[in-house]
Amino acid sequence: MTWLRLDSVTKSFTKDDGTRFNALQDIALELKRDEHLIALIGPDGSGKSTLLKILAGHLTPDAGHYYLSLADRPVIASDIGYMSQTLGLYEDLSVGANLELFAQLRDLKIESEQLHQYLDQLLTQVGLIKFKDYAAGALSGGMKQKLALTCALSAQPKLLLLDEPTVGVDPISRRELWAIIHQYLARTNSYCIFSSLYLEEADVSARTLFIKDGRLIFSGTSTELKTQVQEQCFKLSLTAGHSYQQVARSLMCHLGHSTTLQDLCPRLGRIDLLTKPGTTQAALSRELTELLARAQPELTTHDYELTPRAPLLEDAYINLTAASAPSESAAPAPETTAPSAPQAPALGASGEVIIDVQGIKKQFGTFTAVHDSNFKVYRGEIFGLLGPNGAGKTTTFRMICALLNPSAGKILIEGMSLAHAKSSVRATIGYVAQKFCLYRNLTVKQNLKYFAQSYGLTGSYLKERMAVMVSTFHLEPYLNESAINLPFGVQRSLSMACALIHEPTILFLDEATSGADPTARRSFWAMIARLAAQGTTIIVTTHFMEEAEYCDRFLIQDQGQILILGRPDDICGRGDKRISIEEAFIHCIEERRSAQGGSHGKPSP
After folding, report:
1. pLDDT tens-digit map of 338-359
2. Residues 155, 102 contacting (CB under 8 angstroms)
3. Domains of the chain, with CATH numbers?
4. Per-residue pLDDT band at 605 (split at 50, 70, 90)
5. For residues 210 and 218, is the Cβ–Cβ distance under 8 A?
6. CA 348 to chain centre
7. Minimal CA–CA distance to 161: which of 273, 270, 40?
8. What average pLDDT does range 20-27 have in this prediction?
9. Is 79 left (phi over 0), alpha (psi -120 to 50) or beta?
């Protein structure tokens, strides 16, 4: 009655310094025939990718055995479709050539003419047929994900192994990808094991597997996992006139010192709380009274209501990872050197404009990536740029950071025009790029030192800033590891550390949490909240729509045009009903595309 059995599967690797570490330790598991969709979740570096590579036949375990029984015959290459985190596409080849190559490598037994018809049908189903002759490297991120998934499906596998198939993908593309997967499984009665950082995806699986430190610590339904934190979940609802984002950020700055709370986040106009095990509502209420009395502005018990709420899978995830997290999971941001850090101002005419974008436009040949964009960002504000893959967000970022010249328009940074003061402006900016862009062959320590020195840091101040960054981002275990060998989430942490080492007044984060698990994202946003309170201005793009709840304001952009700009309350309010930012995002994009006749534009350069 089982289609997969693992018996004490173990796998270890050797680090650069010669030491061994166990990626998987004694994994034992049985999956039943009626369990077709299996979710694999856990912190970065926990062993999820290693397990998928073993099942795909790309790695051999050091000890233990695994058994696959997918059909009434031995398993062959075409029985398994594998999609890695890196996608594995040949970017110089066309979309069609990539698909044909993967089908042939998987030994798909179809005659040549029928093969081309079949592959064209696949491309039509996923909406890529009109891009068949495009080079894969010219596609937007969402299109590349679709192509990689289609390549995994091309040999009609009986088992799909998908390693974070939707990471870095916008909500609309993510929904389209999952529609393809569900339709395939239903039509072929196949099986799928996938890893994901989007826990709502795991929530609909037949079984959820939680791996931490190479060990399987939970196997069951998501409902069973959520039940474990049923008594630990509360919501804080504020009375009219109080900003839930500002209150949440104030609480986040103190979370590391709380005796009752292990997590909080703004969501749907309220603040969701997760207590430490064994905490009573009365104890939580007493501590909140003290914490909110220190908020800006000060809140009394008349300004909020504390009530229980239904648990989310994210709550259970954070609860399970808390035991292995550093003692202060919400690590504080480094203190500024100024004697008194400014508080984030109230937005409006009295706020100090730090970034003023005036009618910028960017063209690549005949393709217009950004059309006449206008917006302002204020000191201490967290400002979000949202949009589908290929919407022009990264192009906008690069123009504001002086990495790309606009074709038209003007950008002022703290009153200085980028056209005339690029070098002085760059000294005030920290930038985390969408793609990993550090020095891969340098160690973590060498990367930090290089970036610090490139910003002019020397002597004791350089050592002090390196120590602060290492502590803040928990990089101690990796100091002598080459950047290329770091787990993906640790690479992101190193990128953040290098961007902040010179204490910039403006921080640009281009999908900085892509590839980070919920616990790591919480730690990241606790740091961002502290930086904003100290007066750092932050502009962020993200495909985790719930992260826009941290933003004072955000805009939604598509095909290079700003569709809407405002506060979460303004954009997501629907009378007495509040919709999620993801719902607002999808509605905004689909409404525009419907008016245009369903156009998705062309791949972003």
Report:
1. 333 334 444 433 478 999 999 9
2. yes
3. 2-225 (3.40.50.300), 230-310 (3.30.70.100), 380-391+422-595 (3.40.50.300)
4. very low
5. yes
6. 30
7. 40
8. 92
9. alpha
